[in-house]
Amino acid sequence: GGGLLYWLLYLKLFHYFPPFRIFRYLTFRTAFASLTALFTGLIVGPIVIRRLRDFQIGQYIREEGPQAHQKKAGTPTMGGLLIAIAILVPTLLWADLGNPFVWIAVFATLAFGAIGFTDDYLKVVHRRNLGLTARAKLGYQIAASIVIAMALIALQHRGEYSTRLLVPFLKQFHPDLVIERWSANPHLWPLAFLPFVAFVVLVIVGSSNAVNLTDGLDGLAIGCTVIAAGALAVLTYLSGHATFATYLELQRMPQIGELTIFCGAMVGSSIGFLWYNAHPAEVFMGDVGSLALGGAIGTVAVMIKQELLLPFIGGIFVIEALSVILQVGSYKLRKKRIFKMAPIHHHFELLGWSESKVIVRFWIASLVFALFALTTLKLR
């Protein structure tokens, strides 16, 4: 197994040219995957943006939002296609394609991207801000997450994955999400896996929608994604590395290391997209981008067993999602709003912060959260 370049440079050419041995190293391939993703994004960007413009896949701005946003109408959306291309191509080139975890990550990106694409495409066809119904969107997201959970259960049967949870700060506590006593009983075994499947669905669907809610200002969601994917890359590398995993008492999963390449590609492609999405944005990611990125981040967190750290890795995404839940809940229950407007980035805009100030301050907060997530590894 091996990515196309991995296969060519390492397995085929290294006999003739020994320095090509370097392509065996994960760190090296991760760096190259990131750079490949970055340059793919920068080079393919203008072509995709032009194509989207020709399609006139413009963004329909909601009327009640901050008035400054009205001038954004007509900016091409669905730029998430660019992100997906720039994640998938380097992964296929540099990662070991014999690795099941890499394919699960690729599947998550494509499946959630497809749900977002359908949503965006319907909005364009209907020329208004209505795509898939909320129920349909959620239904597809749950279905995709169940497929991912089933794949992980299959890997658990082969002894390549663990359904146990890693709990931050608690070294010895590893609750298993599969009910052992039932899994042996042929009548009860589907029930034995229910808690695990439900948990996976919650993490991935939640993560996917949280990124989607954050994507409301130029470069906001993608900047936070750069940081979250970077933190995940570090965690993935440590989890797959024998010495570090033992030292930090992470669950040692040698197969998981290859996912570092996928995370690296996610970092590179996000930076490449940010080049065109920075304020004032030339392109928006659309649901095709935000759902794919959120789905990918959630899936990686589940695969490396850091689901409970995910709220810190993607701190801003969680705060944005919570602000919407609180606002809607408060309005339904007591007919009062908590924020001037949800998601919370609009609240700060209405407080008079300029758009670029909100964006950069949220990035800073995002970085603080991610760094905190990484410090928990030693604080146990």
What does this structure look like?
This protein is mainly alpha-helical. It has 16 helices and no strands. α3 runs parallel beside α12 (286-303) and α8 (194-214) crosses α14. The longest helix has 30 residues, at 26-55. The protein starts with a helix and ends in a 5-residue tail after the last helix.
Q: How would you summarize this macromolecular structure in one to three sentences?
A:
The chain is an all-alpha fold. It has helices spanning 4-12, 26-55, 80-94, 100-126, 134-157, 180-183, 189-192, 194-214, 220-240, 242-247, 259-277, 286-303, 310-313, 315-334, 344-350, 355-375.
Report the radius of gyration as a whole number of Å: 21 Å
User: What is the mean pLDDT?
Assistant: 89
Strand content: under 5%
Please give the share of residues in helix: 55-70%
Compressed to H and E, one letter per element, the order equals: HHHHHHHHHHHHHHHH
Largest sheet: none
Instruction: Using the alpha-carbon principal axes, give the shape.
Output: globular
Number of helices: 16
Structural class: mainly alpha
Ends distance: 37 Å
Total DSSP E strands = 0
> Which regions are unreliable across 5 or more consecutive residues at pLDDT < 50?
none
Annotate the secondary structure layout.
Elements: H1 4-12, H2 26-55, H3 80-94, H4 100-126, H5 134-157, H6 180-183, H7 189-192, H8 194-214, H9 220-240, H10 242-247, H11 259-277, H12 286-303, H13 310-313, H14 315-334, H15 344-350, H16 355-375
Helix pairs in contact: 2-3, 2-11, 3-4, 3-11, 3-12, 4-5, 4-12, 5-8, 8-12, 8-14, 9-11, 9-12, 9-16
